[in-house]
Design brief:
This protein is 45% helix and 0% strand. By secondary structure, the protein is mainly α. It has a domain of 109 residues.
Length: 162
Amino acid sequence: MPHHSARSFSPHFLTFLVPPVTYATLADLIARAGESEIRQIADRDRDGEIDADVISEALEHADNLVNGYVGTKYSLPFASVPDLVTTWAIDIARHRLHYQGPPEYVEEDYKRAIASLEKVARGQISLPVAGVETPASSSGTVMFSAPDEVFDARGLRGWKCL
C-alpha cells in the first residue's frame, strides 16, 4: 500500500461535499498586503514573479479552513460571500504564504480570523447572509438500534477471563 505524506495528500474530498467557492483572490491578497509583499512570499522559484500554484494552495487552504468552521452553522456554498468571510480567508492565506514564519502583525490577524471563525461555529457570531437558513441544531438525543446480545452470562458460563 503506498504511503502518502501530509504534503501529497490534499483534502479534495471537500469538493464532493461542497462545490468549490473561492472566498479570496490574488487581487484581494494584493489589496491587503501590497504587491511587493505578496511577490516576496509567493515567489518560491525566485524568478521575480508570483507563483500561481503557491497562491492557489494558500487560497485553497483558507477556503477549506473557513468551510470547516462556517459549514457547522451555514449551508454552503454561500450565494454571495460575506465581506467578513473574505477578510478571514485573506488573513489565513497570507499567514500560510509566510512559510518561513509570519511577522507578528500577520500572526495576530490570523489568530483573530481563527477566533472569529470559532465564534461562528459556536453560534456567537452570525454572518450577514441573505436567504440562507442555518442548519437546525440537534436536541442532543442520540438514537440507535443494535442487534440482540450474542454473548450473555449464560453463553459465557464456564469461560474464565485471563
